[in-house]
Amino acid sequence: SEIGKQAVQRLNDLGVIIDVSQMSSKALEQVSQL
């Protein structure tokens, strides 16, 4: 979703490490493309 993309981008800007250990393969792929 657009809000999810904005949230991930903001977390990256803040230097937060996102825990992707519980994400599906599709979600992980989408996050890594941002």
TrEMBL record:
GO terms for biological process: proteolysis. One of its GO terms (molecular function) is metallodipeptidase activity. Pfam families: Peptidase_M19. This is Renal dipeptidase family protein.
